[in-house]
Write a structure and sequence with these properties.
This protein has 6 helices and 5 strands. The chain is α+β, with helices and mostly antiparallel strands and about 190 residues long. The radius of gyration is 20 Å and the shape is globular.
Length: about 190
């Protein structure tokens, strides 16, 4: 392929960064140190740091193990994953919908929860990112687009936002958030 005939276009400017994805905001687990070659971070040290953040050693061990399987999962997402797995719920994690990240207008809902013939979407909301200007409108647009959609043969009847601060608070708060979501209710930040 030659570029002849394109000389009249002039110099293209202002396209710097085109096609680059925005950097995602770090989550508490992502921001924990990973160690260096000189001082590798051992799993026990990571577990103790996660246990301190969650206030639960048993849960921390499971989250560290899940982080190996899902390295891009945020800590609140992995806490929700562990809870649903423990409750033997049927769900999909990080499923591409409408083209996912590859297409404009696509989504990657955190969880698609099978509710026996219909589905709920659980979207774990980081307090920092989802409080940025304009983000609430994008979140509502996503909620509108997914409600009524059919994903893997299940019609989505509800999109529920679960807030990071509530999930990371304590065991009782986590139970309340997840049970409220199952009942179709969102608890605020």
């Amino acid at each position: 392929m030659t570029l002849e005939g394109l000389s009249g276009l002039g110099k293209l400017s202002g396209l710097r960064g085109l096609g680059k994805r925005p950097k995602s905001q770090p989550t508490p687990l992502d921001s924990l140190p990973t160690g260096t070659e000189e001082t590798p971070l051992v799993a026990d040290d990571l577990e103790s740091r996660v246990a301190k953040a969650l206030g639960d050693e048993r849960l921390a061990k499971k989250i560290v193990k899940l982080k190996e399987k899902f390295p891009l999962g945020s800590m609140p997402e992995l806490v929700a994953y562990e809870w649903m797995e423990r409750k033997k719920m049927r769900f999909l994690y990080q499923q591409n919908v409408f083209g996912g990240r590859a297409r404009r207008g696509g989504y990657v809902p955190d969880f698609i929860v099978d509710r026996g013939g219909w589905a709920q979407v659980w979207q774990v909301q980081g307090n920092y990112w989802h409080s940025q200007p304009g983000q609430a409108q994008e979140d509502q647009a996503m909620k509108f687009a997914l409600t009524g959609a059919t994903i893997n043969g299940l019609k989505v009847n509800q999109v529920i936002f679960l807030w990071e601060s509530r999930i990371m608070n304590d065991d009782k708060s986590r139970e309340r958030v997840f049970n409220a979501a199952l009942g179709g209710r969102e608890l605020g930040r």
